[in-house]
User: Which sequence fits this backbone?
């Protein structure tokens, strides 16, 4: 992650670390992939297509890393997709096509939530070129900045200013 320590400050008379706002995600060998949570307010849409299916799926991501992402699914789609299926993805942020890439389904999940059962799918991207790898790093950094901004807004609404 591209953030650095800036200072120790006081927030409501309590010591807190002040960090620089992340600018870009960097690759570090042998490091666990960082997953950025996609905030609800971020306009991030994923179009999904796969061979042999007449269904066109437009969904939202749950989280994203440089190498993969988790996406929300409807129950009927969850039944159609199988592990190891190849999915073709188009990633849109703020109605702008940011990436077009293929991926492989690595897991299918059902999670019980307050609103009912949520279905999701984890995919691993096929990163064939340095260009698409760089684009994915940029998308992850953009998503992480949006998430941190959302957290800063929540803190600000409670009277805590965590951004300079």
Assistant:
């Amino acid at each position: 992650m591209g953030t650095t320590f800036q200072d120790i400050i006081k927030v409501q008379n309590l010591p807190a670390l002040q960090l620089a706002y992340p600018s870009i995600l960097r690759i570090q060998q042998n490091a666990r992939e960082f997953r950025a949570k996609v905030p609800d307010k971020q306009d991030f849409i994923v179009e999904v297509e796969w061979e042999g299916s007449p269904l066109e799926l437009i969904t939202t991501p749950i989280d994203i890393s440089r190498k993969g992402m988790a996406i929300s699914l409807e129950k009927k789609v969850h039944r159609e997709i199988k592990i190891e299926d190849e999915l073709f993805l188009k990633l849109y942020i703020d109605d702008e096509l940011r990436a077009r890439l293929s991926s492989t389904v690595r897991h299918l999940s059902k999670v019980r939530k307050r609103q009912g059962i949520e279905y999701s799918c984890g995919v691993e991207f096929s990163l064939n070129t340095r260009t698409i790898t760089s684009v994915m790093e940029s998308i992850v950094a953009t998503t992480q900045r949006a998430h941190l901004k959302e957290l800063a807004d929540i803190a600000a609404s409670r009277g805590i200013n965590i951004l300079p």
User: Anything to note?
Assistant: The beta strands are 5-11, 14-19, 36-37, 44-50, 57-59, 61-64, 68-73, 86-93, 96-113, 116-125.
